[in-house]
């Protein structure tokens, strides 16, 4: 508005003319602003409020605070570093901001990067938008000059501008009171207002330079004021809202987010077509939860972990609307939900659309990484690391991208097996001759293909599938194990992660699941079979005091003596104390907790297709194949121990030195990690909700950060020891 009076670039307003000129100079650019603002003396009152200058002047850049509002909630303040830079861009537009650009200059300013680089602010249009993902609704931003007492929420910008203009017109150059306690709001009883300003639906009274009150002009408010004043109360104490000029806390460039040392790509599973913004909301929940954990447990580190959503589904065309056109209209809502969610599994098992899904996720991962590095060039220079958190089907697609798995290989193996079977059976001379000719032709074709690939490789170096090395691959609620099992992967005799995911591709694989998640499967028994009888590692509760490091936790056993479907709650409780040092809890046999729900609960899901139905049905209807064992040393001699060592690989108890044989093979690192069940958790309900309950879990946030901050924490501890 033309009436708004904001900070002029030629005016000193920082306590001395020299400081003000240095800060306000538009020609100084970003660096000049930073140097001048950094040179400002920090003047805070004992109560922790903002500094006050001796004379009434225009508000300094550090007194103004910018705000943003998401989801129509309350205004949230930007941190000092962001607010100062937004204010610089605002003042670069001209004396009156966007409405009054300088003569001969276009009112265009570079967007300001805020909120740890995840968002940008368009100062001219007073809006913010995300950098790494698409969002239909822009986030409004506002410049705060006058604030409501107590909440420190900003007044609407139009009213704030009018009040600021009136305040400067009336009081500029006047002396401020030296003793001013912001913590106690004391209305001036009996004193008449020395100045007043009428607004559209309210008015403002100045009782002194520092005593400013806002009053509503609504009829009910006027009646209330009249009654309370007749009872002897002052106007200010009865219905006025005290206002403060300038924010409670001075904005400084030191109030800056830490450097990002680790980025985490969060990959969604099925159902994204149904709610395209879901992964953005889920990642925001995980990010906010991780911030709380960082503040509590990792505040001594000068870096932080950033979470970026990877939305790969909405850009894919796939079959267009063919599936929708063949969907009957009866129970349309349920059918649409299944088409938008479970249909993704059928798309992925289709040879026609699988590559489109893989390329969609691969391109989005590379796009995000390239964009992040272009905006943070120091990330790669400082050895920044990348991890991936995938959910549900996203785990399978991410795994296939990292390993380069393709169903064509499976087809070639099948053909080779058929050829071997043909060679074993009796055949006539003519058949043998034709088979030999076919074999020679295939060999010749393979040689030509290899030569052709060699020529291509010498001229054009093939770029890597992913542009970054994956440090940690976290799977949440993952069906990856059942996909690998159906591809023919069987347990080996090596305890290395390389059996399913080479360490050269990904340093660490971690499989997180809730015990009642019907879509999640274990990975460890695919590496070593006897781990089907060793329980997953229990994830520590968020508030556990001095938890034992995961690498020091000893295995505990599952000891099924009956089929899971026949085990009752009382019989399923293990009578042998667990050798783990984590808190002892009543634990049912793995898988029993959801078996009692019955096969009927997934009949509806099974009807959508063989892939999903078979996956879920095998989860609910499976029986235990683990070999029953006895942990009593008195009943078994050396022969029994030998048998157990070769069949289930029973680890010894910590206190045992010779009573048990050492297990044949152990895993190099544990892979399966299980959330603890709540004490009052309903298993019927959690079987439905657990698959989507990972995003806001404090336990999972602490677990993720524990592994991602592991090296940083060790380096910090080592430097502290060296200093001592």
Automatic annotation (TrEMBL):
Signal peptide: none
Gene Ontology molecular functions: metal ion binding; phospholipase activity
Basic and acidic residues bias: start-end ranges: 41-52, 633-645
Pfam families linked to this entry: DDHD
Gly residues compositional bias, start-end: 10-21
Source domain of life: Eukaryota
Sections of the chain in a coiled coil: none
Compositionally biased residues, Low complexity: 22-40, 564-583
Cellular component, GO, one term: cytoplasm
InterPro entries reported for this sequence: DDHD_dom (IPR004177), PA-PLA1 (IPR058055)
Residue stretches making up the DDHD domain: 466-710
SMART domains, sorted: DDHD
Residue segments, region Disordered: 1-52, 560-583, 625-660
Family per record: Belongs to the PA-PLA1 family.
PANTHER family: PA-PL1 PHOSPHOLIPASE FAMILY, PHOSPHOLIPASE DDHD1
Record protein name field: DDHD1 Phospholipase
Gene that specifies this protein: Ddhd1
């Amino acid at each position: 508005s033309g009436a708004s009076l904001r900070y002029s670039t030629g005016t000193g307003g920082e306590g001395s003319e020299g400081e003000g000129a240095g800060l306000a100079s538009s020609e100084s650019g970003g660096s000049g602003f930073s140097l001048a603002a950094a040179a400002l003396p920090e003047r805070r009152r004992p109560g922790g409020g903002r500094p006050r200058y001796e004379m009434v002047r225009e508000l300094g850049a550090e007194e103004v605070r910018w705000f943003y509002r998401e989801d129509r909630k309350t205004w949230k303040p930007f941190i000092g570093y962001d607010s100062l830079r937004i204010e610089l861009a605002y003042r670069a537009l001209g004396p009156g901001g966007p409405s009054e650009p300088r003569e001969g200059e276009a009112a265009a300013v570079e967007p300001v990067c805020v909120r740890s680089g995840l968002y940008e602010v368009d100062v001219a249009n007073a809006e913010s938008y995300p950098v790494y993902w698409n969002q239909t609704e822009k986030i409004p931003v506002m410049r705060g000059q006058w604030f409501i007492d107590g909440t420190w929420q900003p007044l609407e910008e139009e009213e704030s501008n009018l009040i600021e203009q009136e305040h400067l017109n009336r009081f500029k150059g006047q002396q401020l009171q030296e003793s001013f306690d912001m913590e106690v709001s004391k209305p001036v009883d009996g004193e008449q207002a020395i100045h007043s300003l009428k607004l559209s639906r309210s008015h403002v009274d100045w009782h002194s330079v520092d005593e400013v009150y806002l009053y509503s002009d609504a009829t009910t408010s006027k009646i209330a004021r009249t009654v309370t004043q007749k009872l002897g109360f002052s106007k200010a104490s009865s219905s006025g809202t005290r206002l403060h000029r300038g924010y409670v806390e001075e904005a400084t460039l030191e109030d800056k987010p830490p450097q990002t040392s680790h980025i985490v790509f969060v990959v969604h599973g099925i159902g994204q077509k149904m709610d395209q913004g879901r992964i953005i909301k889920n990642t925001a929940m995980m990010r906010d939860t991780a911030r709380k954990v960082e503040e509590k447990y990792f505040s001594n580190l000068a870096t932080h972990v950033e979470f970026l959503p990877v939305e790969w589904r909405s850009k894919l065309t796939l079959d267009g609307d063919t599936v929708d056109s063949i969907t009957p209209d009866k129970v349309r809502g349920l059918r649409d939900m299944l088409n938008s969610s479970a249909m993704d599994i059928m798309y992925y098992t289709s040879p026609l659309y699988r590559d489109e899904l893989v390329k969609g996720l691969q391109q989005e991962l590379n796009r995000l990484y390239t964009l992040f590095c272009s905006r943070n060039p120091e990330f790669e220079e400082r050895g920044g690391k990348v991890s991936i958190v995938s959910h549900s089907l996203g785990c399978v697609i991410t795994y296939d991208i990292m390993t380069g798995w393709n169903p064509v290989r499976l087809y070639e193996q099948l053909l080779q097996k058929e050829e071997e079977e043909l060679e074993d059976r009796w055949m006539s001379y003519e058949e043998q001759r034709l088979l030999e000719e076919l074999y020679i032709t295939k060999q010749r074709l393979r040689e030509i293909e290899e030569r052709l690939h060699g020529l291509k490789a010498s001229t054009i170096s093939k770029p890597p599938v992913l542009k970054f090395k994956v440090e940690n691959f976290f799977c949440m609620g993952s069906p990856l194990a059942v996909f690998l099992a159906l591809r023919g992967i069987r347990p080996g005799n090596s305890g290395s992660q390389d059996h399913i995911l080479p360490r050269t591709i990904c340093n660490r694989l971690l499989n997180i699941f809730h015990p009642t998640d019907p879509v999640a499967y274990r990975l460890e028994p695919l590496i070593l079979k006897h781990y089907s009888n060793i329980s997953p590692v229990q994830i520590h509760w968020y508030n556990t005091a001095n938890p034992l490091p995961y690498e020091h936790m000893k295995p505990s056993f599952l000891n099924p003596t009956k089929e899971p479907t026949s085990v009752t709650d009382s019989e399923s409780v293990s009578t042998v104390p667990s050798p783990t040092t984590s808190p002892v809890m009543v634990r049912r046999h793995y898988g029993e907790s959801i078996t009692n729900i019955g096969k009927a609960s997934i009949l509806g899901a099974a009807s959508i297709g063989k892939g999903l139905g078979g996956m879920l049905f095998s989860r609910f209807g499976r029986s235990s194949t683990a070999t029953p064992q006895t942990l009593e040393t008195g009943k078994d001699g050396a022969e029994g121990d030998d048998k157990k060592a070769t069949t289930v690989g029973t680890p010894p108890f910590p206190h045992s030195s010779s009573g048990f044989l050492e297990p044949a093979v152990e895993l190099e690192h544990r892979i399966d990690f299980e959330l603890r069940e709540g004490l009052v958790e309903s298993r019927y309900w959690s079987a439905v909700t657990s698959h989507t309950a990972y995003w806001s879990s404090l336990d999972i946030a602490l677990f993720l950060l524990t592994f991602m901050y592991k090296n940083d924490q060790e380096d910090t501890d080592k430097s502290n020891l060296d200093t001592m």
